[in-house]
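Marked as duplicate of an earlier ticket. Keeping the data here for the record.
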Amino acid sequence: MRTYDVIIAGGGPAGAACGAFCAQSGLSTLILEKVTFPRDKVCGDCLNPSCWPLLERLDLASRVLSLPHSKLEEIEFIGVRGRSICFPLNASKRGEIAVKRAHLDNLLLQRALECGAEVRENAAITSIERGWRVHAAEKTFGARVLVAADGRNSTIARSLSLLPAAKKDRIALQTHVPAPPGFGERVILRLLPEGYCGAASIGDGEVNLCLVSRPKRIASLKAWAEANFAVAASTAWRTITPLSRAPISPAYENLFLCGDAARVVEPFTGEGIFYALASGELAARHIRAGSSPGDYAREHARLYRGRLWVNALAKRAVLYPRAGSLLLDLLRFYPPALRFLTAKVVGDALR
C-alpha cells in the first residue's frame, strides 16, 4: 500500500486546485477521479471574474484564454410575461467568460499533474477506513490527510455518514446546442411558468443551455427549450439533482471538504467554479499549515459570507418564477437596484 501526505477524492476544479497547490508545496498528493477526462458537467460554463486571481496563482490564466470561449458582453433577464431588461458586462479578458467544462476541467487536472500531483482516473472510491485507507480501482492507498472534493453527492461524506438528506425539489438539465442566429456573446436568464432557462454563448458557434424545474414540470420545460432553440431530437441532455442541500461542516480531524462536497451554491448565480477553486486553494493552504479543523471552518465560512442572501434570492426566483418576474418588473423602474443585483449575480464574488 502506497501512502501519501494527501489524497483528494475528485478531480474537478476543487480537487484539481487543491491538488496543484498541495503538490507545489512539496506534499505527496494523489487525486482519485471516478471518470476519465475530458468530460462535460451540468454547469452554466461561466467563469466569474473572481476566478482570474486564482487562475493566475495556478499559472493558468493565459492558457484558459487560449481555450475556445466567449467573452460575455451582456446579460439579459426575461420574466414570465416576456418583458426583459439588459445590462452590459465587462467583456475584457479579465471579465466574465464562458468556456466548456470539458476544456476547463481537463486543463486544471493537467495543471495538477504538472505541479507534481499523481492523478488516477477511472478510479471510483469504493470504501474508506479512518486512518486514512482509501480503496479505489482494486487498490488501497493510505494518506495522512483526506480531502473530499467529490461533489454534492460526495462519496466521502456519504461513507462517513456526513451527507445530509436532500430533497429532490428541482432537477437541472444541460446541453450544448448551435447558437441561434444573432445570439451574440451574451447570457440570457429567463423565468418561465415551468421554471428557469439559462443560455450562454461559449464560443465556436455554440450555446450552453441549462434548464431548472421541479420534477413534474421538467418535461414541459425541456419541450419549450427544444422548440425555441431548435434542439435536435438526437441531442443528449445531462442531468443532476439535488440542486440544493444543507451545508456540511467543512473540516474534521485530517479531513477537509471543499467545493460542492461542503456547500452547494445556487447555480443561478454562476459562482460554482469560483467557490470550487477558492475552497480548494483554501484547503491546500490549511493542510500545508497543519491548521486545526476550526481554523479552516472559520475561513471557509468567511469565504461565503455576504453571498448567501444572493443565492437564497436566486433560489426563490427559480422556485417561484411568477414572483421572480414580478420582482424583475418592479426593478425595471429602479435600474440601479437591478444593476446592483446583476453585479452580485455575475460580478466579482470577492466584492
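See parent ticket for discussion. The mean pLDDT is 89.
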